[in-house]
Amino acid sequence: MREGRIIKVSGPLVVAEGMEEARMFDVVRVSEKRLIGEIIEIRGDRAWIQVYEETSGIGPGEPVFLTGEPLSVELGPGLIESIFDGVQRPLDKVREIAGDFITRGIEVPGLDREKRWGFKPTVKRGDRVVEGDIIGEVQETTLITHRIMIPPGVNGVIDKIEEGEFTVEDVVAVVKTDSGEFKEIRMMQRWPVRQPRPYKKKLSPTIPLTTGQRITDTLFPVAKGGTAAIPGPFGSGKTVFLHQLAKWADAQVVIYVGCGERGNEMTDVLMEFPELEDPRTGEPLMKRTVLIANTSNMPVAAREASVYTGITIAEYFRDMGYSVALMADSTSRWAEAMREISGRLEEMPGEEGYPAYLGTRIAEFYERAGRVICLGSDDREGALSVIGAVSPPGGDLSDPVVQATLRVVKVFWSLDAELAYQRHFPAINWLRSYSLYLDNLDDYYKERLGEEWIEMRNLAMWLLEREAELMEIVRLVGLESLSPENRLIMEAARSVREDYLHQNAFHEIDTYTSLEKQFKMLDLVLTYYKKGQECLKKGVPIDKIVNLEIREDIAKAKFIPEDQLERIDEMKRRLIEAMDALSP
């Protein structure tokens, strides 16, 4: 094996000489301990290597072994239900070998080489196939059928294919390519993580990724194949909200990347997901989830690998025709790792010490999202939605990581410490957040919920904005000084906030709300406002409208189960009767 020699060690950065045959982003094994590293800079015969494991105790003179391959992930049956570290080592296998702490230099393949999977062909000998075509299926879990695809760059005729039980390394088919070569097809593919997987065509984002969270679905929706960022200070509920999205988002496969977050947060996911039921199938959520854990006490440099590993696995499931949601928690920790490596490379720093290419790296990551026509002759559609949490110090939205993220994402859910302290969950500030997908998704909402949905959403938003303006007056001279019309606006806005937008993540019914229930709930709140306006015109005192007993029922609508939505219609009927009875 070709090898170089270490001349300098600076934390996670190692410099080696004698590396004439090295290429950028190739994987190397550092020292006799064979630590995983990746070449990030080359000058002459010297290579600068970012090491994804602890480098203490390693010094100049030790060897560096070249592998000649870029950092890649193994893609095939066995990904779902797994928990990997940043460089795709399965942590359960690592524990069997090394105990509770990861031993440096440990080598474990990403996919189990012993396990046999039942392969069912969907094509036969003599069929013509092109890159991306599905040639067979493996029932990976009760929720996910793993589709075995022809790798990119292979076109030809099936020369041999057989049904049976195989390991991921066994040959399941042979393709005679157009150039006359015979190409063996295995259930496992390897793919370089920094290279986006190819597709035929990108589609416009016209279908919402429903999340069951009322504030996001109603006011700030994200599209399938879209991108969203959740910045917020410590303790504002980023992780809980990401867990909610992972549980309830309308995606068939969830990839959850814990990038530099605390270990206990990943433990929460690990403990909860096997017990939580998928609302659509009743099966454990873990049966459609891949976890990548790179917690804050793991090597800093590996955070970069964990983000790329996650998005490459997500693209692979997208290519099968699935709707995939990737949650990255949090990209700020990845940016901090970039800052540290950049500092050790002695590069010219950008804003706040971050590297000048911070924005480019973040953009490249989010741009791998999208709703696409996948490779293959069947024109199947897949979607990859990327949602990233950002943790700026003190919730400062002018932080370079937040600003670089906002330049590329289309949805901004701004978490607010003040709302979090008021126990308002999700603590998304409705005055600072936005979604650029609203116009794209309007046709879908009109078809599913009717034309009036758009008007209702706009009215709810207007009430919240008007409330914020009136609050300035209320602070100065008190609520009683407002006109009856403005007092009604304040009451209606409070109802929108407390009865509609406030949602309990830990309540078995309130944790998830379908679009149909959201429509009925919002309609109920806004009916109160519209009927209140009518009553004011007829001379009804504002205090009577404010103190209506039936208003307590509006607050209870969120706890009505999905299969009893007619109870909300009954509430609306009683509300209209009560309001009509006020008129003289």
In short, what is this structure?
The chain is α+β, with helices and mostly antiparallel strands.
Give a verbal description of the structure.
By secondary structure, this protein is an alpha+beta fold. 33% of the residues lie in helices and 23% in strands. It has 16 helices and 26 strands. Strand 23 and strand 24 form a beta hairpin. The longest helix has 26 residues. The radius of gyration is 27 Å and the shape is globular.
Provide key terms for this protein.
33% helix; 584 residues; globular; alpha+beta; six-stranded antiparallel β-barrel
Explain the layout of strands and helices.
Elements: E1 3-10, E2 13-17, E3 26-30, E4 35-43, E5 46-51, E6 63-70, E7 72-75, E8 83-84, H1 91-98, E9 117-121, E10 128-129, E11 134-139, E12 145-149, E13 156-161, E14 164-166, E15 171-177, E16 182-186, E17 189-192, E18 201-203, H2 214-218, E19 227-231, H3 238-248, E20 253-259, H4 263-272, E21 289-294, H5 302-319, E22 323-329, H6 331-344, H7 358-366, E23 370-373, E24 381-390, H8 400-406, E25 411-412, H9 417-421, E26 434-435, H10 438-449, H11 452-477, H12 484-501, H13 515-537, H14 542-546, H15 551-556, H16 566-582
Parallel strand pairs: 8-21, 19-24, 19-25, 20-21, 20-22, 22-24
Antiparallel strand pairs: 1-2, 1-6, 2-5, 3-4, 3-6, 4-5, 7-17, 9-11, 9-14, 10-13, 11-12, 13-15, 15-16, 18-23, 23-24, 25-26
